[in-house]
Structures are given as C-alpha cells and as structure tokens.
Amino acid sequence: MLKIGITGGIGSGKTTVCKVFELFGVPVYYADDEAKKILDANTEVKEQIAQLFGVEIFDNTQLVDRKKLAALVFNDKKKLEQLNSIVHPAVGRHFENWLQEYASSKYILKEAAILFESDAYRAVDKVIAVVAPVELKIMRVMKRDKSTRQQIEQRMNNQLSDDEIIKRSQYLIHNDEQQLTIPQIINIHKQLIL
C-alpha cells in the first residue's frame, strides 16, 4: 500500500480535493481533525497541555479552549513547537493504527496542513501539494471560519510557502478556480493505482 501525503496552506482546498479522492474509494486520514479529537479525548495529551499552558486552557466542560490555545501559540513559536511536540507524536501513533484498517488498499491519503513542518511527511511515500493564490485562500478562510485577515495571515506565517511545498512534493493540484480540479485529481489517481 502506498501512503500519500496531501498538504497545502490554509484555504488551499485540501479537504475538498480529499473528498473527491474519497469518491474514488480512497481512504483519507484527516490528521488535523484527528489532532482535535486527540486534544479532546486523550488524557495523557490533556495532562501535558495542562502542564504547559495551565488549567485555564480548558473550558468549563474540560475541553481545550482552541481559540485561547491558538491565540497563545500562533504568536509564540516556542509554545507552538512545544504544543506540536505533544500532539504530533499522538497523531502519528493514531495514524499507524488507522493504517491497519486499510492494509488492502492500493493507496491511502494522509491530509495534513503542516505535513512538512511536523515531519509527518517521513511517514508517507509521496506527497500531493494543493495550492491556490494567497488572496483566494484568505477569502475562503474568512468565509469558512469567520476569521479576520490578520488572524489568517498569522496562521499562514506559521506554514511553508506554496513554492516550498511544491518543491518538496511529487504531485501538484492547482485549486485556483481557473483550472479544472477534478481532471488533475483523476490524473494523479490513475498514476497511483498503476
């Protein structure tokens, strides 16, 4: 089974692209979604986060207050690295267990916004980059998350540039609303099932 990473900056449309791959029967592991679940449910991870940020990082239901956490880490690279050193290994272990369910698949996708930054690319065989113009990405995220331009730009500053992602990837999908996306996906799918 081939393990294929799929990545791109915030607002690039990774999830939309993954949903098309799923229509072809390709299993997709959504690393960012799993990280959120682990933050909420993994006792060991929650304890480490409490030690790092204090118990005030939890809301009144004892879940991590993600907005508060984001505000703390996106302006402090050291704290972001510390958070990642807690969450990423837990996601990696979960991914390895998830893989066992799909051992008979020709290939699977691992979707992650920070595939390269988190070193998760080491667990995959090849990488698909999903890219879009910066303004389009900002508009998509503003609409989706009701975030401000400044908040989105801060998050973008913690991610690799599209040029760097493209350089490190073996496949490329332009999700720019100018080129048809589905034919690009079909082309990659055909190459991966050979």
What does this structure look like?
With 194 residues, the protein is an alpha/beta fold. The protein folds into 2 domains: 1-27 and 107-194, P-loop containing nucleotide triphosphate hydrolases (Rossmann fold, 3-Layer(aba) Sandwich); 33-101, P-loop containing nucleotide triphosphate hydrolases (Rossmann fold). 55% of the residues lie in helices and 12% in strands. The protein has 9 helices and 5 strands, in the order E-H-E-H-H-H-H-E-E-H-H-H-E-H. The protein has helices at 14-23, 31-41, 43-53, 66-73, 77-101, 134-145, 149-157, 162-168, 181-193, and strands spanning 2-7, 28-30, 107-111, 126-131, 171-174. Strands 2-3-1-4-5 form a 5-stranded parallel β-sheet, sandwiched between helices. Helix 2 (31-41) crosses helix 5 (77-101) and helix 3 runs antiparallel to helix 5. It starts with a strand and ends with a helix. The model has no long low-confidence stretch (mean pLDDT 94).
